[in-house]
Design brief:
globular; Arc Repressor Mutant, subunit A; 25 strands; about 20% strand; 19 helices; FAD/NAD(P)-binding domain; Elongation Factor Tu (Ef-tu), domain 3
């Protein structure tokens, strides 16, 4: 007899995307089952033991502003906090934190287990259960199928109206270390093929990417006296807007470098490297290359920095950031022991590469729902991204929209000018990917206003409207907003030399310390509020221009394209443009303009067609 379980939302995979998706849907009142092949690896950091960084920190703080998990978890378990890019303006700052890897995973699991409406269950999903859509058909971008559940190992069935796939690197995954190949999406864990077969069965395109990880070393075998120390910030900056401060002791990291001799060793063994023998054919992340790729691509450089990062307070395990590799074990041993300070290093875990299936994301709507299968949402590496932060950002949107769809409510759609999350999703669904996608500040046209420090002011009102924000988060934002307004009034009222303090803050040489010296009462203003006021004032002129550009572009490109528009009927439209627009199904002319290969002439033809149809 087949066992059947009924839920509102099923989330498949309990990594960073799955956790955010499940918790978001549960916060909205949906009854959620989070299915994972191993309940002991919920929220596990499969690669580097860190959260944040340039571009990525903005995503973490936006996830937190929407009520997410990641920011609170890293604040509770971080062992070192640093703000990167301090020499640049606030829009370029990137908070980053090293995590106690095991404690982070345990904290995330605790949050999941304590979340109302959410059940964590250990299951391996082997197939999707769908039914044909009764009307509409697949023509003009309409879905052909509707999800009704999943079948798991042991032949049990879970029923739900919406499903979020967050399968990470586990779809038909293969791990490579030199010539050795083993099935699995992570060391010590298996893989699954059923979901990939199901997706292909329902007309969803599948492709392959690869990622990699470096070896881990035993700290007791490292000569730290030869390494440069990298300490954390004196005043650690939290990620979550619910965290008042972090006062625990921070651990140090260390820096060393590769040498010309190591590069010679790598070149001499490229014939054994899977990326260069043809054993791995899929593309990896350009901005996080393997050490063998660095040596080949940057042949003029005789060394590369390596960062030695502790994986926790109660472990000897050290993560060697900067030396991701799939070279054979004997080469890894030799290579590591040629690094200054690592001459006697003992490898605890060898590096490896993973090849896995992903679904090109131009098959999704901006709500992260499949265009072929109604009720099927996708988030994380299955969409061709890389990184914990990118996964979490997609997860919170996909989980929210899965729950909103059940209630017949309008989807959460974040625009490019609203958030880095909006940039991320628009890039994925509009432009697609040809390599694993990673977030950078350079991808955001409006990064001056999309700072990490104001994510709550930008997104928590949206979270409040939807029902995602906790009462404490709403109260804190209200108090912060009131403090900002009151402090600005004080700054605008106090003059020095005939100029208000608010005006003086626009000058590079006049900072908050000078404002406090001129008006000591400002010393009581919280550091968070002081930082935001100073940034707002300094960027004020640029922000006015930015808002004007946004409004101008909105007016020009806000023309909505009907959901079922038949591009084959658009006269004079190039065949390539027809194909790409039909695949992406952009919502507006503005989004259509960002589709790769679409020209202004194509947009003009579409506009003429819409005008001829009376805008219908």
């Amino acid at each position: 007899m087949t066992c059947r379980y009924n839920y509102d939302v099923l989330v498949i995979g309990a990594g960073h995307a799955g956790v955010e998706a499940a918790c978001a849907a549960a916060r909205l009142g949906a009854r959620v089952a989070l299915l994972t092949a191993n309940c002991d690896t919920v929220g596990q950091m499969s690669c580097n033991p860190a959260i944040g960084g340039v571009g990525k920190a903005q995503l973490v703080r936006e996830v937190d502003a929407l009520g997410g998990v990641m920011g609170q978890a890293i604040d509770a378990t971080g062992i070192q906090f640093r703000v990167l890019n301090r020499s640049k303006g606030p829009a370029m700052h990137g908070p980053r934190a090293q995590a106690d890897k095991r404690l982070y995973q345990m904290e995330v699991k605790r949050i999941v287990e304590e979340t109302d409406n959410l059940e964590l269950r250990q299951e391996t999903v082997e197939d999707l259960v769908v039914e044909p859509v009764e009307s509409g058909g697949h023509g003009q971008g309409r879905p052909e199928w509707r999800v009704t559940g999943v079948r798991v190992r042991g032949d049990a069935v879970y029923r739900a109206e919406t499903i979020v796939l967050t399968t990470g690197t586990f779809l038909q995954a293969v791990m490579h270390t030199g010539e050795a190949k083993t099935p699995g999406g992570r060391a010590g864990e298996g893989t699954t093929a059923g979901v990939s077969r199901a997706l292909e069965r329902f007309g969803i395109r599948i492709d392959r990417f690869k990622t990699g990880t470096p070896c881990r070393l035993s700290a007791k075998s490292i000569d730290f006296s030869q390494l440069d120390v990298q300490a954390g910030d004196a005043e650690p900056q939290p990620f979550s807007f619910l965290t008042d401060g972090i006062d625990r002791e921070q651990l140090v990291c260390w820096i060393t470098r590769t040498t010309p001799e190591i590069h010679d060793l790598i070149r001499a063994n490229l014939h054994r490297a899977p990326m260069y023998t043809g054993q791995i054919e899929s593309r990896g992340p350009r901005y996080c290359p393997s050490i063998e790729d660095k040596v080949v691509r940057f042949a003029d450089r005789d060394s590369h920095q390596l960062f030695l990062e502790p994986e926790g307070r109660r472990t000897q395990e050290i993560y060697v950031n900067g030396i991701s590799t799939s070279l054979p074990r004997d080469v890894q041993d030799a290579m590591i022991r040629m690094v200054p300070g690592l001459e006697r290093a003992q490898v605890m875990r060898y590096g490896y590469a993973v090849e896995y299936d992903y679904c090109p994301p131009d098959q999704l709507t901006v709500a992260l729902e499949s265009k072929r299968v109604k009720g099927l949402f996708c988030a994380g590496q299955i969409n061709g991204t890389t990184g914990y932060e990118e996964a979490a950002a997609q997860g919170i949107v996909a989980g929210t929209n899965a729950a909103l769809a059940l209630a017949g409510r309008e989807s959460l759609v974040l625009e490019r000018e609203d958030s880095y999350i909006g940039v991320l999703i628009d890039d994925l669904v509009t432009r697609g990917v040809d390599e694993p996608y990673r977030m950078f500040t350079s991808r955001a046209e409006h990064r001056l206003s999309l700072r990490h420090d104001n994510a709550d002011r930008r997104l928590t009102p949206t979270a409040t409207r939807l029902g995602l924000a906790q009462p404490e988060r709403i109260e804190r934002l209200a108090a912060k907003t009131a403090e900002i307004e009151a402090t600005r009034e004080v700054l605008a009222a106090r003059r020095v030399g005939g100029v208000t303090l608010l005006e003086l803050l626009k000058r590079p040489e006049f900072g908050w310390a000078e404002a406090v010296a001129a008006l000591p009462a400002l010393a009581g203003v919280s550091r968070t509020v002081a930082t935001q006021i100073a940034s707002d004032v300094r960027y004020a002129g640029y922000l006015v221009l930015e808002r004007e550009q946004i409004e101008r572009r909105r007016r020009q490109g806000a023309r909505v394209i009907p959901e079922g528009l038949d591009y084959a009927a658009v006269r004079h439209l190039r065949a390539e443009a027809r194909e790409k627009l039909d695949r992406v199904r952009p919502r507006t002319l503005e989004q259509a303009g960002r589709v790769s290969g679409i020209t202004p002439a194509d947009l003009a033809i579409v506009l003429v067609h819409l005008e001829g149809r009376g805008g219908a």
